[in-house]
Amino acid sequence: MNTILAILFIHWLADFIFQNRKMGLNKGKSIKWLTFHVMVYTIVTGFCWVIFSPELVAIKWLLIITFTTHWITDFITSKASGFCYLMMNEAKFLKDDYDAHLGMKNRYDDEIRAQLIVKRDHQEEREHGWQYWFWAVIGIDQFIHIATLLITYEYLIKPISI
Questions:
Q1: Count of domains forming the chain
Q2: pTM for the full predicted model
């Protein structure tokens, strides 16, 4: 149990505390920022592994595996979450635009107002749908990172430290 908590702590530290806003916003748009983020993540993770497992001798493989799997995962998930975020904001913008038109009293007859309400409600449903997928992508991203660290520990670190 202590190992699992240590792995969760290492991941939280490396992926959240040491990731600044610029990295988070740009890693889905720029290979440079993605690579920089993953380098920081790998260094922090490697440093923590050495602290928690000082007898670790396979540090080179640990760093290679951590860097590669994190880079591939974030390359895919940051693009997917970025797309979901963009679509969610587009739907919110359109919904707000319909709300603004509906707020103009006596500008539209009842039939047009009813059509605007239907369109606004559709955009609200789209916004919630994309919001759901945004968080689902973030969740799978975190699951993959944690699973990768646990598997790395199980097959690379644990056999060495026993």
A1: 1
A2: 0.82
